[in-house]
Amino acid sequence: MAAWDLTVTVEDLGPDAPPLQISVTSDLHIGGVILKLVEQTNLKRDWSDHALWWEQKQQWLLRTGWTLDKCGVHADARLIFTPQHKPLRLGLPNGATLKMRACFSSPVFRTVMGICRVLNLRHPEELSLLRPVEEKKKKKDKDSSEELYDLTDVPLTAGSVQALYNGMPAHFADSPKTEAVYKMLSVSLPSPAPEAIAKLYRPASIVDKTHIHTRWLDSSRSLMQQGIQENDKLGLRFKYYTFHDMDPKYDAVRLTQLYEQARWAILLEDIDCTEEEMMLFGALQYHIGKQSLSQDMVSSCQGMDDLESALKSLEVKMVGDGNSTDMLDNMTAPELNDHLKIFRPKRLTLKGYKQYWCKFQETSISYYKSKEDRYGEPIQQLNLKGCEVAPDVNVAGQKFCIKLLIPAPEGMNEIYLRCENEKQYSQWMAACKLASKGLTLLDSSYQSEVQNIQTFLSMQRSSSAAPTSQTDESINTHSLVSPRYQKKYKPKQLTPRILEAYQNIAQLSLTSAILKFLQIWQALPDFGISYFMVRFKGSRKDEVLGIANNRLIRIDLGVGDVVKTWRYSNMRQWNVNWDIRQVAIEFDGNINIAFGCVNADCKVVHEYIGGYIFMSTRARQQSDTLNEELFHKLTGGHEAL
Amino acid sequence: MDDIDAMFSDMLQEMDLLTQSLGEEAESAPLPKPPTIPGPQEMNFSVGFTDFNASLHDLEDNDLDALMADLVADISATEEKFATEKDTLKGSAPVAPIPSQPPSNLSFPGSSSTLRQATSSNSIAATPPPPTSKPSKEELEEQIKADKIKLALEKLKEAKVKKLVVKVEIMDGSSKTLMVDERQTVRDVIDNLFEKTHCDCNVDWSVCETNPDLQTERGFEDHENLVEPLSTWTRDTENKVLFHEKKDKYEVFRNPQNFYMWKKDKKSLKDMKEKDKEQLLEENFCGASVIVPDLEGILYLKEDGKKSWKQRYFLLRASGLYYSPKGKTKASRDLVCLVQFDNVNVYYCKEYRIKYKAPTDHCFILKHSQIQKESQYIRYLCCDDEWTMTLWVTGIRIAKYGKQLYDNYKAAVRKAAGSATWASRSIQASSSASTPSPTPKARAANGHAPQPAVETKGSSNQTSFPPPPASMETLPPPPPDPMLPPPPPAPPSTNKVNQFPPPPQFPQSSFPPPPMDDLPPPPPPPPEDSELPPDFLPPPPPIFSSCGGEALPPPPPDPIASLPPPPALQNFASAGGAPPPPPPPPPPPAPAPAASKPAGSVRKVAPPPPKRTTPQLAAPSVG
């Protein structure tokens, strides 16, 4: 067989080195080509990660057993000999950028699996990569100031990483630098400055939201094939909103990143919520931020956690042992005694606050005319069990009121207690809060409740002075809500609203606060819907198709109303006509729909639907291994062969 | 140390005094209380009677018998509990005499003396035998003192438990009176009533409260406590507690499509496949957060303090009830929150057309449970028709209670299935597993054969003192239920009990009935470790326990109590993760065909052999 010259550029020789010419025959297999090539470079190094990339055809020649002939390579081909793993800048859900090596030669689905393995994220099938929003080129180069985390030195290990060292996967425990990366991954980041939120891109309409999803990469093709270059930036996001088997014990990173994604979705108004919900989200963010700060790296360790829980249960046991002194204390409950001003708004009275001697005991407040009368009958005794407690506070104006709505058969009794100062307020407020839940001052959470209130008050004080991002104690409440509410309320108005919501969640642990946040997020009506601009067959106008984990939604662009819903459970089959780029779906009862995609590639839509159906098969699969083949079968399309 | 000693002697004396006075009390009032420590919130009164004395006359003799027996059982249960406990703790210690079981068919006049008998045995136990043998041994003394303290505390604890005598009206006009203590859930009360009334025990039976002032009715949810809401009633209240079937109690679980796909034509939903219904439930109730039906539409809202009713466009969200103000869009940001559900309950109303000039009679209100009279804090809403009202009220219940509601339903179905196949005595056993200590004895008094084994065990459960050592360690025990056949799917809407498919070999094969010799009076450390293969069950998933787990009583640690499906345990297990461990009976849910069919359409169908994902082969080691 005739020999001919094959031109191959070896990247490792430097950008200016001329391509190498090697003499080959058509029946030489790829492995042989590589061997010849390596011999010719005279470089001694590990070439095992290198492979041949055929630039004109935009494809990898990965099957070393195939001959050149079988691959279709002829003398005119220009091949590049290059590593399969290259550094990539990953934009994480929490907004940080992480530089790490990723596979450029395998399908994106598998590349994501590799990335997730390094990051210690379980269930990589729920995530994918997307191209970043094209930033308007501003002259000042922001990239230089951007903090970059670097994981490129961490070798990609084969097999699952489960070995924990110092509370983190072993490959993070190598150096302080990598430890910092793990901390960034597993602990939620402080709230951003409000200006930073305002500056970021926010979808203003449902049409804008459809643009987000045009940017997903194709899971069945490699990064190189999709034009991604070394050191390019890509976003890593949860793509399918169905989170399988979430377990805080193993999912520290996954939970944190999911929380971050949800948080940003709310801050950037990706998902709409009501004012009440926003206040609760704000309160939870504040709480999570505070808990994350106080959570030291050491205490987050698995080992320590176990120890802690062991100690806890030991404690419980001791108490359960009928510790007699404890029980004795129970009978002589502590009280609060102080002068407070009380105001009971009644119709047709303008009477203001009047000072009384107040006693807080068990779950009731008794008040007396004066301190001297305290042994007699109180003027009134208020049992706070089941009541509503709301703060009415203005630190700048030194106003510390507690508004109580005490249920009674006739309705609610409205009573205001006015405290002199922060200290008094936080004590009484905490007591009221506990009493409303039927707990007494004895309850172990009392002290922390007092603390919580105090820190929150200090936040209100500092927010007027320091408008920048979160420090240890202070935080600007504007950074907890979306720009819409930043505009609507001044911090001074916002703080009490968030404080009100905060009362109900202040006792949550970090993990349960995150779970709660995710829960409320998932309960939003618009949760988990990905929008695409489509044109239905037979229709003359663009419409929006929403894809959720169990259904497709047709949305009228004019009104924004849901016109029709189809559930996957009624779906018989779906087809893609790749030539005219049209998706056709058949449902039970002879319902057929077909649409073309306006701004996204129809592969993305196809992959989304197939992906969700794949996700729903997971519940039945007992094993933990990912059925990659099935995924590609459901999402691949004809190109995946 | 002396101080404490003295204090306890005092306290014990006082308690004995109180217990003795109890007997006298019993003669004058129908509500003899166990020894109590006067506390600020102590209130025991009867519910369902117009006044205190009337209740005495109203009571039928047999009712009183039952109540007395309840009471005696209470005391002796505490006694026994303590005695057994002491036994287990230190076998060598002097054993307090276990009071003999009170005769089960007391008549009223004699009951007070019986009570005295019981209390006197009480006091015998209260003063443990003096340390005769070796007074020099300090250890022994300490031990006795510790016992004394424990006994005293235990008594106090029992005494602090609030109890109510409740008259429950049954649909046929008759009524039953029973004692409810604050630890009992509505579920327990319903079980109790099942026994007393011998009705068909289907899942629709519910305990309701009515308020004639507001003309409202509300069915209590199974997980709620009954005592708490009832004790906020006013003394002169005419509110009533009813026991009847309410079709809408669990309708959402039988026909979820009517609620979750309410926009669709009802006819097309009528013959939805069971499989699809199950999937709907799975989607909406078994995820990380419960999905609330996306209800929206025009309702009438009674203006604050006015007589007029205004139409508003309302939307239901998990976070509350919203309406969109005139001239605004339905977008979330523009919605105005009418009420959030944390502090309010939802009530059906009657005849509001007359009372409040409502547009229709299909009204419901949202109010704090303690409000008993007309008030500006009540939200009045009116719907066009009855179905709309059911839709909204059910939606609000889902938003308020979340997964708990589903758990309640599953427990109710299990109960109903159990009671259909089992003899009534097995119901007792099953309920005693979840009810607090006094109840087993109470049942004994109702003329049924008690199951002594379960009793002892059940009562030892309740204490806060260390139960038999091992049981603490094994908490939470892996729920044994998955071994049992899962509950039958949504029961038919008719009330015939025998329509429930009898659970296959439920009682016989899975768990043999406890052999009597297995149960010596002092309960040994629970043997469940050996009985339940630990690897058979996944450990209770710790995630999301906040959504339901914490509201539940801790799972009873003893294996025998869990013999019949205890609701608490099951709840515990299913409140856990996203997919509950016991899967619904037909394993392949809907996505299966959907998954394979489309695949076939895209390309050839080939059943994919589960393939192991191979990890990335090459690791770069460049440089």
TrEMBL record, chain A:
Keyword presence, Transport: no
Coiled-coil annotated spans: none
Gene Ontology biological-process entries: cell-matrix adhesion; integrin activation; integrin-mediated signaling pathway; leukocyte cell-cell adhesion; platelet aggregation; regulation of cell-cell adhesion mediated by integrin
Record field: transmembrane: none
Pfam families: FERM_M (PF00373), Kindlin_2_N (PF18124), PH (PF00169)
Molecular function, one GO term: integrin binding
GO cellular component: cell-substrate junction
Keywords of this entry: Cell adhesion
Domain PH: 341-437
Protein family (similarity comment): Belongs to the kindlin family.
Name of this protein: FERM domain containing kindlin 3b
Source organism per UniProt: Cyprinus carpio carpio
Species classification: Eukaryota, Metazoa, Chordata, Craniata, Vertebrata
TrEMBL record, chain B:
Keyword Zinc among record annotations: no
Membrane topology: Peripheral membrane protein
Pfam family, one: PH
GO CC field: cytoskeleton; cytosol; plasma membrane
Record-linked SUPFAM superfamilies: PH domain-like, Ubiquitin-like
Sequence ranges of Polar residues compositional bias: 103-117
Domain named PH: residues: 292-401
Pro residues composition-biased segments: 465-492, 500-527, 552-568, 578-592
Ranges of residues in domain Ras-associating: 162-249
Subcellular localization(s) per the UniProt record: Cell membrane; Cytoplasm, Cytoskeleton
Low complexity bias (residue ranges): 423-445
Highest taxon of source: Eukaryota
Region span, Disordered: 15-44, 86-141, 423-623
Keywords of this entry: Cell membrane, Cytoplasm, Cytoskeleton, Membrane
A biological-process GO annotation: signal transduction
Family: Belongs to the MRL family.
Protein name: Amyloid beta A4 precursor protein-binding family B member 1-interacting protein
Lineage: Eukaryota, Metazoa, Chordata, Craniata, Vertebrata
